[in-house]
Amino acid sequence: MSKPSVRYLVFDVESVADAELVSRLKYPGENVEPDEAVKRFRAELMEKNDSDFIPYTYQVPISIVVAKVAADFRLIDLIALDEPQFRSHVMTAHFWKGWGEYRKKGPLTLVSFNGRTFDAPLLELAAFRYGLPLPAWFSTAAKTYEQPRNRYNADAHLDLQDVLTNFGASRFSGGLNLAANLLGKPGKMDVQGYMVQDLFNAGRIAEINDYCRCDVLDTYFVFLRCHVVLGQLKLEDEQKIIAETKAWLQERSAVTPVYASYLSRWGTWRNPWEEAVPAAAPVASAGVASQEVTSTV
């Protein structure tokens, strides 16, 4: 049986500060050691913003994980780019080359959660930094709304946070962690985003990639539910795909132990449509006669 073609690339990126760049630009002439410059910058940001997250413009990718998904929304594969070296310039090149190659074979959509705000701009800037041409991505000869990086081109890049907030019309407090937990998925486990810089400084890059893998899994399950809401996937089919994906993770957990950890915190989405409802249970509201629970809006 031939392998299904890739229709979606669900991705996530983790990054760390370019310490030398921070030292050179934030503290010119002070001879501040790069690692100390990052600590100082984070402390200043925490005092000012109540968050020590360094702007992406000072960062480089340290982990890029991509899930390959078929047109029927089933998971084909999940990979960490440039594993186990995890070289920033190489993984950036692999990401953009892979996007270009899969795109030549047929329709392709990048899928992210908040990727338009962070991941995509970070990868564009990394291409700028490393001298990587991206003519197909920028597509300057095309009409603006047809360019893949266009803000509202969901065929090229489906940002699930945009789906859930109507392109930023509301604030999605809780982020991917909340969206995943609504579906009974683990969300953030032992590692969270603010820990990535410290893990990198400690040389624990593999853990960062495991964290990124789990974020991609959460994003994938949110992707499935969004397509249920969009009317492009039936709820019962979504549940079948989720069960298949769970089995897929179980089969590979010996080789990729973080899958076992993810599965150990796997919850059950409570389907209200399958819960027993007393046949005669009434629903009463002020000023309105009681109706049977089978009534529709």
How does this structure look, described?
- The protein has 297 residues and is of the alpha/beta class.
- It has one domain (8-292): Nucleotidyltransferase, domain 5 (2-Layer Sandwich), CATH 3.30.420.10.
- Helices cover 43% and strands 14% of the residues.
- The protein has eleven helices and seven strands.
- The chain has helices at 19-26, 34-49, 88-105, 119-130, 135-138, 160-165, 175-182, 196-201, 205-229, 235-252, 257-264; strands at residues 8-17, 59-69, 75-80, 109-112, 157-159, 282-285, 288-292.
- The strands form two sheets. A five-stranded mixed beta sheet has the order 3-2-1-4-5.
- A hairpin with a 5-residue loop joins strand 2 and strand 3.
- It starts with 7 loop residues before the first strand and ends in a 5-residue tail after the last strand.
- The relative contact order is 0.12.
Widest beta sheet: strand line-up: 3-2-1-4-5
* Coarse shape: globular
CATH topology title: Nucleotidyltransferase, domain 5
N- and C-termini, Cα separation: 46 Å
Total number of helical segments? 11
What is the architecture at the second tier of CATH? 2-Layer Sandwich
What order do the helices and strands come in, and which of them pair?
Layout lengths: L7 E10 L1 H8 L7 H16 L9 E11 L5 E6 L7 H18 L3 E4 L6 H12 L4 H4 L18 E3 H6 L9 H8 L13 H6 L3 H25 L5 H18 L4 H8 L17 E4 L2 E5 L5
Parallel strand pairs: 1-4, 4-5
Antiparallel strand pairs: 1-2, 2-3, 6-7
Helix pairs in contact: 1-2, 3-4, 7-9, 10-11
